[in-house]
Amino acid sequence: MLETLVYTFLLSISPFGEARAGIPYAVLNDLPLAWAFVVGLVANLLIFPLLSWLIDTFSLKLWPNRTYRKSVINLSKRAKRGVGNEVQKYGFWGLMIFVMIPLPGTGAYMGTIAAYVFKIGRGSAFLAISIGVVISCILMAAGSYFGNIGLQAL
Asked: Could you give the CA distance from residue 97 to residue 113 in angstroms, rounded to a whole number?
């Protein structure tokens, strides 16, 4: 059980799956739904403060480096294209809905980058991303639970 909890946490904090991968992994490995939800949620909520700190730290120290600056500009352009005008237009609500949708390319990582690119205040960005993550985790937990019941019925 401990191994499944650790893998769930690591999958949920990774940029490759977030809780969209961690929660289904836990449920499919017979971890109780409540544990899967809590571990996935906590790991996914840690993304915003960790990534914000990394962005601030690296930007402060590496901005004079041309390669870093060029990479940040390209990533910012990509984030603007990926997120679209909705986050910029609707701010808090657009960011929350963007993070809430459990699809690849959305989530806390891209939401944090979008908040940074669109200069959304930290407090409101954290709240929007947190609400979006909670709703996304609820959707994933419910889908995983009922999907697992369907698999067991077959």
From this structure: 15
